[in-house]
Write a structure and sequence with these properties.
The protein is built from 2 helices and no strands. It is mainly alpha-helical. The chain is rod-shaped and about 60 Å long. This is Protein EARLY FLOWERING 4 domain-containing protein. Keywords: Biological rhythms, Nucleus.
């Protein structure tokens, strides 16, 4: 049976993942709107609209960088949580750690 600390860790990890995924989805939704506006401006061929696209494309690129950073953080957090969970797996459920004996040389 898993100890309370492990459940708290799993809950915290899941909460962090959920928060990151919500942030990513929000940025991706914003990017969809930016791309639609960029396409409309491009199709209009109106000079002011085409000039506006420069700023919109910069914003889009910055958003993509944010998404990459969030996914990088997610990857690091996931790896860290796996490391923590696997090291907790070395303990027996009765709370006594598994002890390895060294063989005499």
């Amino acid at each position: 049976m898993e100890g309370n600390g492990g459940a708290q860790l799993d809950g915290k990890v899941m909460q962090t993942f959920q928060k990151s995924f919500v942030q990513v989805q929000s940025i991706l939704d914003q990017n969809r709107l930016l791309i639609n506006e960029i396409n409309q401006n491009h199709e209009s061929k109106i000079p002011d609209n085409l000039s506006r696209n420069v700023g919109l494309i910069r914003e889009l690129n910055n958003n993509i960088k944010k998404v990459v950073d969030l996914y990088s953080d997610l990857s690091s957090n996931f790896s860290r949580s796996i490391d923590v969970n696997s090291s907790e797996g070395d303990s027996r459920s009765d709370g006594k750690g598994v002890q390895k004996r060294n063989r005499p040389g």
